[in-house]
Amino acid sequence: MKLDGVTVIDLSMFLPGPHFTVMMADHGADVIRIEPHAGEPTRELGLRLGEHSVWFRNTHRGKRSLRLNLKDPRGKALLLKLLEKADVLVEGFRPGVMKRLGLDYDSVRVHAPQLVYCSISAFGQTGRYCDHPAHDMAVQALAGTLDFNRGRDGAPTNPGLPAADITSSMFALTGVLMALLKQRQTGQGDFVDIAMHDSLLAWTPNYTGPVFAEHRAHDVKNERNWGGAAFYSLYLTSDARWLVLGGMEHHFCANFLHKAGRPDLIPLCDLPPGPGQQPVKDFLTAFFAARTQADALAWLEDIDVCYAPLRTLVEAYDDPHAAERGMLLHDEQGLPHIGTAIKFTQEPARIGFAVPHLGEHSRAIAAALGYAEEDIDALAREGVI
């Protein structure tokens, strides 16, 4: 597997870090999850299925759990021993926390110069907002991307996905793999500073035209991505379901309108998104309102048009395509898991379905570091591990 032989020490919590490191575990890395005595919070968050919460299972499968008190000098010493032989450290605390523990990058690299040290935070290790606490939605608000989530009444609404969490997870994976490539060449690690806010801004090249060219905010309802284009919008069907048209290229519009008997509307589709396309939107609104979703899908089936029914997430996982692509997996107990989106022809992912109990591997990890059995007993008895 691609990451065989890579050891990752994961101190992060909730979604960005654990989501990133479970991808590494899926592809062969040995991920050791350092948990506080109360455990990773997502062990108890959300619905449970079997022994574990669904959230925890899908971000911690295939990892090992070391329950460790980092405020005790002996816990810190044990972690440093681990880091001396590790490849990657991931942490998601607010800036300054690791320094107060004596575990910041400058302190750690004295003991482990090979280490790729990745910090994931809301606003990064520098800049005026670095100490500001924030979870996903507040980061999206400051990054300007939450402003895109406006309903038909024009009011902003909660985001549908934790985009700041997930984009930072993906940039963390990318940055760490880059640093590991260099580490393999030089033996030297690096510090990777990943900010959720940076990650969102980096994902806006197709949205920054008005910002950079005209220095103005988006007129959301009249722009392509948010319903200003007739063939890039949502339409209500007669059975109170929705259908999405998702491609505004000329030939898609023409194919639809020719079959619908309204070729006269085709030139309007070539106008900029906004009021000029309103007659087309009015026609499409009436067209779909007169049909059930199933009838509309049947009508669309034989023409080359970008479209899809609006589904719930349960419908998406029920679709056989999810299983065919390996995105819905089941373990030996029949419990469902999210698959990996990174697919190799050579050395594909091998999902380790085992989910660690809190501190399950603490004693074994300490023993592998050379601790004597009586010392391990003492560390456990005194709450260090």
Quick synopsis:
By secondary structure, this protein is an alpha/beta fold. It has two domains: 7-202 and 322-381, 3-Layer(aba) Sandwich (Rossmann fold), CATH 3.40.50.10540; 232-305, formyl-coa transferase, domain 3 (2-Layer Sandwich), CATH 3.30.1540.
Q: What fold name stands as the CATH topology of the largest domain?
A: Rossmann fold
Number of helices: 17
Looking at the overall shape, the CATH architecture of the largest domain is 3-Layer(aba) Sandwich
Number of strands: 13
CATH class of the largest domain: Alpha Beta
Q: Cα-atom Rg, whole angstroms?
A: 25 Å
Percentage of helical residues? 25-40%
Shape: elongated
Order of helices and strands: EHEEEHEHEHHEHHEHHEEHHHHEHHEEHH
How many separate structural domains? 2
Strand content: 5-15%
For CATH, the homologous superfamily of the largest domain is named as Crotonobetainyl-coa:carnitine coa-transferase, domain 1
What about the largest sheet?
A: 6 strands, parallel
Q: State mean pLDDT (0 to 100 scale).
A: 95
The spatial strand order of the largest sheet comes to: 5-2-1-6-7-8
How far the N terminus sits from the C terminus, by CA atoms, comes to 31 Å
Unreliable spans are: none
Structure description:
- With about 375 residues, this protein is α/β, with parallel strands linked by helices.
- The chain has two domains: about 260 residues, Rossmann fold, CATH 3.40.50.10540; about 70 residues, formyl-coa transferase, domain 3 (2-Layer Sandwich), CATH 3.30.1540.
- The protein contains 17 helices and 13 strands.
- A six-stranded parallel sheet has the order 5-2-1-6-7-8, sandwiched between helices. Strands 9-10-11 form a three-stranded antiparallel sheet, covered by helices on one side. Strands 3-4 form a two-stranded antiparallel sheet.
- Helix 1 packs across helix 7.
- The longest helix is centred in the middle third of the chain and has 24 residues.
- The radius of gyration is 25 Å and the shape is elongated.
